[in-house]
Amino acid sequence: MRRVLGVLLAVCTAALTFAGAGTARAATHTPVIFVHGYTGNASNWVTAEALFAAAGYSGDELYAYDYNWAQSNRTSAAGLAAYVNQVRQRTGASKVDIVNHSMGGLVTDWYVKQLGGTASVAHVASLAGANHGTTYAGACLIYPSCQEMYPGSSFIATVTSGDETPGPTRFATWYSPCDGIIIPYTSTALSGAANNYVACQTHLGYLTDAAVLSQVRAFLAT
């Protein structure tokens, strides 16, 4: 009898432990993937991740995609597609949200429009995204990424053709005349997106702007 009771106790304990683990892993938010820009890396998003964590996001809901910014944005977009699938498999989420900055806008746009990303992305938030290119890229045309980022490139023509905000994915952008890197600064705005004019913010300033990042977080909650 003592042995039977011991077995039952062990089974009950295991069941409770499993249930507890399931509760701990249950996602309260759609996982967020941050995508950096030209010369950037995953560390660009430290402030954003801290702000999102303070608002209740867990470590399993925040990810930063790191890629070689010098390579073709097509290659980086294919890597983003694979990364999104990895995050979805890890979290069990059907979709992710993407927050990008600068050239990360082009990487995201190519993934969403050309690689079928609309099926896996709920929201796209673009901070100073080079969505229609920037003449500033003329200073780094030795890199494929900058050749593609220059206004009038075949890459820009392809990624901006047709519907700029396709499918069920919701888009929002933040752009400012004080940007200084995205030229013209209106290049960030996307037709069909919620385009947010920021009175004065520098290109890198968005990465630590608590007010804008809070707006981004609120947008992802819609």
From TrEMBL:
The opening ranks of the lineage are: Bacteria, Bacillati, Actinomycetota, Actinomycetes, Pseudonocardiales
Q: Which residues form the signal peptide?
A: 1-26
List the protein's name.
Answer: Triacylglycerol lipase
InterPro entries according to UniProt: AB_hydrolase_fold, Lipase_EstA/Esterase_EstB
Please indicate if the UniProt record lists Signal as a keyword.
yes
Membrane-spanning residues = none
User: Would I find RNA-binding among this entry's keywords?
Assistant: no
Gene3D superfamilies in the cross-refs: alpha/beta hydrolase
Cite the entry's keywords alphabetically. Answer: Signal
